[in-house]
Glycerol-1-phosphate dehydrogenase [NAD(P)+] (Haloarchaeobius iranensis), 349 residues
Amino acid sequence: MFTKSTWIRLPRNVVVGHGVVDRTAEVVDDLHLQGRPLVVTSPTPRSLVGDAIESQFTDSAVVVVEEATFESVERVIERAEATQPGFLLGVGGGKAIDIAKMAADHVGLGFVSVPTAASHDGIVSGRGSVPEGDTRHSVAADPPLAVVADTEVLAEAPWELTTAGCADIISNYTAVMDWRLANRLKDVPHSEYAAALSEMTAEILVDNADSVRPGLEESAWVVTKALVSSGVAMSIAGSSRPASGAEHLFSHQLDRIAPEPALHGHQVGVGSILTAYLHGGDRGFWTDIRDALRSIDAPTTAGELGIPPETLVEALTTCHEIRDRYTILGDGMSEEAAWETARKTGVIE
Ligand SMILES: NC(=O)c1ccc[n+]([C@@H]2O[C@H](COP(=O)([O-])OP(=O)(O)OC[C@H]3O[C@@H](n4cnc5c(N)ncnc54)[C@H](O)[C@@H]3O)[C@@H](O)[C@H]2O)c1
Ligand SMILES: O=P(O)(O)OC[C@@H](O)CO
Ligand SMILES: [Zn+2]
């Protein structure tokens, strides 16, 4: 008897292009959302597009968040209970969008994602990523009802935010390898459609790396399309598996232990060099990953990340513990092997 079922949640409208932030109210109308918005944002994005967004609504409430924590989610929920909005707008980088997404899910309201940086593939996904104690949760949440990605705003964002988004996409290669391995070894549920879409997204981005250059609105367009596509792969999978393997565990651990963590995308990019090496050894394709990262100006070494070598090795040897997600790291690497991997790949000079 056939008993399988799936429920793929996707945004209804994805609006990408020049000046579209001024059409946020129109996008909201198209979704038939009622009432006023609660804008969830952080200080810089608020100063950049806050007025442009708020002026489109007769009345709006705002909550400013700084970190992706459960306390921040709680604060947004309290603000929503106090202000009774009709929907939430998440405006900013990955952290503000994750918090808005999770709070909206909790209070049962619709949510619209307005990224101000092309820095991560949570723009569209039905996941929220939050650290807690020794672990890192990938929380299921309703994906945004709509995405409003203004390429003018995204192109003016600091270049390193865009290169972080590119690296988050390039890391899909190793995430998919880990997912296939986990399926073969541990019978972890796997979707070949989601895996293929995730890999293809990385491939298209790498093929177009030449057109990804600072200040070009065309670059913001190329990268945003890839981030949307990667988020859709996560929605099809019903998990972050197609875009998050051991390279993400490594980055999540750096977020916990590094004196000054780097951007999420930059850390997963370097993690991807390391885990690509583990998948294939000397004959592996880790050099392709490194070269792809270099071609879009993303970091490829501990030094470029600003992470001390000892911290990087500690993250590599302990990150398998932070989540129950089987990857190439298995039940952990020895310290010697971690140093060797980091040196052979040039991640530690
Ligand atoms: N839910 C998911 O599926 C998913 C996917 C990928 C990443 N993430 C999460 O997203 C976070 C990483 O996102 P991030 O790299 O955007 O970090 P972030 O949200 O901390 O943003 C980085 C900084 O850039 C600022 N910023 C945003 N737009 C700007 C602009 N236009 N100009 C100047 N500054 C601007 C932000 O205010 C912040 O200070 C991590 O917590 C990661 O786990 C989630
Ligand atoms: O579930 P996590 O590991 O937070 O991954 C989500 C996202 O960062 C994938 O690019
Ligand atoms: Zn990521």
Q: What stands out?
A: Strands lie at 13-17, 37-41, 61-64, 87-92, 110-115, 127-132, 135-140, 146-150. The pocket of SN-glycerol-1-phosphate (ligand 2) is lined by residues 121-122, 127, 129, 138, 168, 240, 243-244, 248 (CB under 6 Å). The CA atoms of residues 135 and 322 lie 5 Å apart. The domain at 159-344 is CATH 1.20.1090.10 (Dehydroquinate synthase-like, alpha domain).
